[in-house]
Amino acid sequence: MTIQAVPEPATRTEHLLFLDRAAVRTCAAGIDPVAAVEDVLRAHAAGHTALPAEGYLPWANSQGAYCRSIAMLGSVGAADPTVPTAYGMKLINAATSNPAQGRERAGGVSFLFDPETARPAVVAEAAYLSALRTGAYTMSSLRHLGPERFQEVTLIGCGAQARTHAELLARYFPDVRTLHVHDLLPERASAFASWVEGSELPFTVVPHGRAAEAAAASTVVITLTITDTGYLSPDHLRPGTFVAHVSLDDLLPEVFDRAQALYVDDVELVRDNPRRVLGRLLGEGRVLGPGTPKPGTSTIRGTLGDVLTAAVPAERPGTGVVVSNPFGMAVLDVGLLARVYARAAADGHGTRLDLLGADR
Ligand code: NAD
To answer: Which branch of life, at top level (predicted)?
Structure first.
């Protein structure tokens, strides 16, 4: 009988790298977030990602405010097999009462896992990364599906996402000069205008008292609210408008009925969530999934990944309205964090945490 030697527990260390928001920001400044997001979208379209069902835990806090935790696992590889797969998770929580207390509504952490030991290897502040990947997705959709030329953009909702979108618009669309903005709370729109004024962003901010007025002011409309009640109808949108429906419940069903073209990030993710308008319309058969055209019924053209891989043609707004409805994919956070981590490792950013402490 042979007795197999049990390996010595020589390395009883459990380290992970912590990247706070400042470190994430510094590392992200050294990468191209739109290129990173487009790589993941192409990998997703090619089937080189895994996106398990998300965990969702809602509750009400002592003020009766809605709170929720969303845990989203994902892995992303590349079409090129020499590029290693990244495994990770985004945990993003929110309480609707946070902003009134001076706190961002949503916050959390994202992880990368060691592919060999499966241990969490990196933990990073998630809200900035989440806003960055969401904004980067919008920039990519605008690049491929937006009007050929535009100098004015409308942002409806002036919270955290609006700021990241403004930063990315300045970087990727330097022709843009004017931001038309609206927020249900006028003080949020004013705070956004003051923030832009105090920054180096090259924009004139024009606040509008009504969402419809703001939407009609430009041909690029980005919804960044937290509404669950639609308020934008086709009549509010100019012919030739591109809508990035980031907050997912702002467009009334008629906008989807009459859309010139409709794109998503992942058809099943959208379909599986009837709490959001497009998921509901898909469930009712009022909007159809790709590949099943029926005269008179709106059909999803495909995903942005399909556009990037040329599997589906890109259609820019002509006389109609093109809608991008990204549900939000954790694989984008994981893929982006992998790039951020590579920078952090190369430049020595972050704090090493010892999980075991003296208990070894
Ligand atoms: P936030 O709370 O920081 O800001 C939201 C702003 O919208 C607030 O200023 C609020 O006053 C305003 N608002 C709420 N209802 C409004 C309405 N009906 N009209 C006009 N303004 C209104 O939120 P955030 O972190 O900036 O996120 C914005 C949205 O983006 C959220 O709905 C979030 O879930 C969504 N999001 C989507 C994706 C995606 O991939 N689809 C990813 C991340 C976040």
So the answer is: Bacteria
Is 139 a domain residue?
no
ipTM over 0.90: yes
The model's confidence at residue 11, banded by pLDDT at 50, 70 and 90, is low
What is the rounded average pLDDT of the residues 311-328?
97
The ligand 1 atom at the shortest distance from the C-alpha of residue 329 is: 40
Query: Which residue in this structure is represented by tokens 């109808």?
Result: 233
Residues 224 and 322 in one domain: yes
Residue 72: pLDDT over 60: yes
Secondary structure (H, E, C), 229-258: CCCECHHHCCCCEEEECCCCCCECHHHHHH
Q: Calculate mean pLDDT across residues 257-284.
A: 96
User: Ligand 1 center to residue 276 CA distance, Å?
Assistant: 14
Residues 94 and 178 in one domain: no
Domain count, the chain: 2
350 and 323 in a common domain: no
Our mutation pick for probing the ligand 1 site, out of 225, 276, 277, counting the most ligand atoms within 8 A of Cβ, is 225
- Angle (deg, nearest 10), helices 21-29 and 126-145: 30
Q: Give the range of the structural domain holding residue 168, as residue numbers without chain letter.
A: 146-327
Q: What is the number of the ligand 1 atom nearest to the C-alpha of 162?
A: 26
